[in-house]
Amino acid sequence: MTGVALPDAGLRAEPGSFRDPGNRVFHRAGEVLRGLDERSARDWRALAASDFFRDLLANRQVCGTEELFPTPVDVPWAAVLRHERIPFVSHPYEWSYGMLRDAALLHLEVLRAALTAGFTTKDGSAYNVQWRGARPVFIDVGSFEAARDGEPWAGYRQFCQTLLYPLLVQAHLGLDFQPFLRARIDGIEPDQMRRLFGGARRWRAGVLTHVHLHGAMQDRNAEASTSTVRAQLRSAGYSRELALATVRGLTKLVRRLDHRPGETHWSDYQRTCAYSMPDRQAKEQFVDRAVAATGPGRVLDLGANDGRYARIAARHADHVVAVEQDPAVVDALYRALREEGEGRILPLVMDLADPSPGGGWRGVERAAFTDRARADVVLALALVHHLAIGRNVPLPEVLDQLAALTVTGGSLVVEFVHPDDPMARRLLANKPDGLFPDYRREVFESLLAARGRVVGRTELPSGTRTLYQVVVGG
């Protein structure tokens, strides 16, 4: 690998990187670095010299990585790597079903290639995968190590709990997996799965082997040490060929678990919403001009639905994060973007009235959405009324949040749906009379002016919706 000098700047440890004491990720002068101890450095250099790893890099299945030469003297590591920066860090409970499934398949493909070349991975967590747009990429380069004969894949349990079990829950039971993963950073425990898949459900694809037999084996070896279990497996003839057979079986199972969510209210929203064709055209032109005027950078599309405006933003932006509450809508968007080979739009599942909080150790191991998502342009189209009326969030707080997600000097592109708009009337009909006396256009414009400078405004031809472009902090 090509070596480069390390810039002189302060190190900042990545809060989510501490579980493997042999290596840790840091940030320094805008770069993503990984420090390695002596053993991990030896594993890395053997990995860097291997053909299979070069192939993974060439196929963009693993994040770009290079070792820094000479090793900086001001850090306590035997070697330091520099990784490419992923455009936006997301968490598995923000993915759609198709995204989680593709992340699992990538994980297994990376492991298969590693085992074939005499390597393995230390873990099997869904958090080892991130995204370049709609393309998954394996990021945990520090997980690779030389395979040892007779030892099983150390990451099997993690793979089951954070990837396979959530897929089984949704494919076989029709339950969205996201709340399970958001509730527990380590995923779904085998005991919980056994309660969900009792009786006849145990015969569904993958359940008997990877839930019940796996759980029974864990119970049987609960008092045994890891070294004892490994010795038992070696004496029983466990081999690399058996490990590869397990990976092939898991890959076949995950491919069979393709799940297509049914139709929902939001999946047909573009047809059923109140927009006329002139409204739609005026809105598209306004968004295109606003993003083009701001220039390259990150765009955050809040309430993205089918991605119509995210695609427009992607004409000008470096990357777009498209957030939508409905998992079925996000899954349809993801599959379309994947087929298009789109590398700039990342679709995510999230309720904006209940965005992803910080989680894990000390609440910072997995950063909150609001700590990750600041953007040069924030699109809040047909969103404010759903939060302010539908979810009873005070209008000033809605705008505070939108402004907080926009970098200083960046653009907030926001749509105000007037109280007499058909959609607003529908939401207001379900609320007590007089509950929202401040939901008025003049109040909205006053709140906008307090948070930035309005540089663009257009009335949609229907006359019941207004679009604004606001330079936040300007």
UniProtKB/TrEMBL annotation:
Enzyme class at the top of the EC tree: transferase
Protein name from the UniProt record: Class I SAM-dependent methyltransferase
Keywords carried by this UniProt record: Methyltransferase, Transferase
Coiled-coil ranges from the UniProt annotation: none
InterPro entries: SAM-dependent_MTases_sf
Organism placement in taxonomy: Bacteria, Bacillati, Actinomycetota, Actinomycetes, Micromonosporales
Gene Ontology MF: a single term: methyltransferase activity
EC number: 2.1.1.-
GO BP: any one term: methylation
